[in-house]
Amino acid sequence: MTNSSPLTQDELKALVGQAALQYVVPGGIVGVGTGSTVNKFIDALARLKNEISGAVSSSVASTERLKALGIAVFDANEVESLAVYIDGADEIDRQGYMVKGGGAALTREKIVAALASRFVCIVDESKLVPTLGRFPLPVEVIPMAVQHITRRFAALGGVARLRLKDGQPLVTDNGQQILDVTGLSIKDPSAFESDVNQWPGVVTVGVFAHQKASVCLVGTAQGMVKTFTY
Known about the structure:
Blueprint: H1 9-19, E1 29-32, H2 36-45, E2 54-57, H3 60-68, E3 73-74, E4 82-87, E5 91-92, E6 98-99, H4 106-115, E7 116-124, E8 137-141, H5 146-155, E9 159-162, E10 164-165, E11 168-169, E12 177-182, H6 189-196, E13 202-205, E14 207-208, E15 215-219, E16 225-229
Parallel strand pairs: 1-2, 1-4, 2-3, 4-7, 7-15
Antiparallel strand pairs: 5-6, 6-14, 8-12, 8-13, 9-12, 10-11, 15-16
């Protein structure tokens, strides 16, 4: 049933967070991402905490939120595989390829996604794009390589800017820095991800093509959830 008045961004996040519960495997360990939409999923997951063994988290912030709700959190090294990983995206295309890293957790997100058999992406419809590149591409880098990598992106027509927090370079959970790159149109996400990941000093590029979404749950302003499978 649709809603007569458009839902707010916060309500859309809660809508898809709740919808993602159907993909949680009873008795299993669920992979949990990072960000404001995932926070809504974590809040919903608390209702199932006695039906799951726990979670593997992609960030310190998500780990703290899970533990505060009484959900056990396992280190990624403690599990061999996960049935599902649930996370948001900064943008996603029609093939399930994504750009992620707006919350600076892209490296850990990609690690947890690689453990999972299924990636369920939860977003609102504003995140759907025909071609990746509208959202500034996050790239986690080793600090001594910042200028070198900035020049590499400039050669591709991109403008890389160091992400700041309180006037200082943001430091990730891994102790590294983030470049946000604008001006790109990523027409072949798999090849682009493979190429940039080979650049010396790149920890992780925020294109998720090799760990793309299996399912995307899209919240619409009318209060519906559209399901896309890839």
